[in-house]
Amino acid sequence: MVVVPARRLNNDVSIPQLGFGVFQVPPERTQQVVEEALAAGYRHIDTAAAYGNEAGVGAAIAACALPREEVFVTTKLRNGEHGDAAQAFEVSRRALGVDVIDLYLIHWPVPSAGLFVQAWRAMEKIYAAGGARAIGVSNFMADHLDTLLAETTVVPAVNQVELHPTFQQPAVCARSRAHGIAVEAYSPLGRGADLTSATVVELARKRGATPAQIVLAWHLGVGNIAIPKSTHAERMRENLAAAGISLSAEELDAVRSMDSAARIGPDPATAAFTQM
Ligand SMILES: NC(=O)c1ccc[n+]([C@@H]2O[C@H](COP(=O)([O-])OP(=O)(O)OC[C@H]3O[C@@H](n4cnc5c(N)ncnc54)[C@H](OP(=O)(O)O)[C@@H]3O)[C@@H](O)[C@H]2O)c1
Fold this sequence. Notes:
Largest sheet: 8 strands, parallel
Shape: globular
Distance between the termini: 36 Å
Structural class: alpha/beta
Number of strands: 10
Helix content: 25-40%
Low-confidence stretches: none
Bound molecules: NADP nicotinamide-adenine-dinucleotide phosphate
Strand content: 15-25%
Strand order of the largest sheet: 3-4-5-6-7-8-9-10
Order of helices and strands: EEEHEHEHEHEHEHEHHEHH
Mean pLDDT: 97
Number of helices: 10
């Protein structure tokens, strides 16, 4: 079985650098899909209250024979609950059926609501009480990070942002890393769209790998944590095997040159995320 490298977060907690995301996995299928992912070898699952499938993730963790400490679980605070993070955390913890959540994130900053600093202060308390082993943010742009760091105490362990070859967010990555915040790539395959690029297809051909493996090996090679999603067991295994591929400096540069600053998802600065 392929060995997935671990990263040390800024509080020394260890996180598998390649994980498994469950956005848009239907709640009724989630237990089975996550059981398949765990059987394939994933030890890091990324969910969110807003995905509606935390219970399925929890059921899979309970059903697998793995010790709890061997599965790293991330979930996220819903946008409408920035003012009540403590209660939202308890709801997520119950849905997941775990005592401790490994990583708890603010899902989106929602700057128009002006509540993310308040949410973070509640999360600092959750962290201090041992409810979460690490706390972090998601979709935080440089100015959101600056506000948070100026007004609160605990530096986020992670910033989970949209990041794939055609959307690399160099400014956000640099600002995060400058503060010791690990960069976690969501939609790491560009939701599949980056897999047909000529650069990726050619690298895959030369390496005898698949396009998804090249993209994920690139993430690992440049230091990103990545959480691809698939509902197909074969693709789960294919994606995990990327951990066994080490790209050369030239290959990493070839993928780096694909950045076209083309975002797929919503812009954290402007969108109002009442639905999340
Ligand atoms: N924090 C946030 O705001 C946020 C936002 C979006 C996503 N996320 C997290 O990031 C995770 C991944 O992002 P994502 O689901 O948006 O996009 P993604 O992982 O980049 O791409 C998923 C898509 O690629 C397909 N795919 C997966 N492996 C493949 C392979 N080897 N070959 C060809 N196609 C493949 C999947 O199809 P099949 O399922 O049919 O295989 C699915 O359509 C989510 O599940 C979630 O946990 C977080």
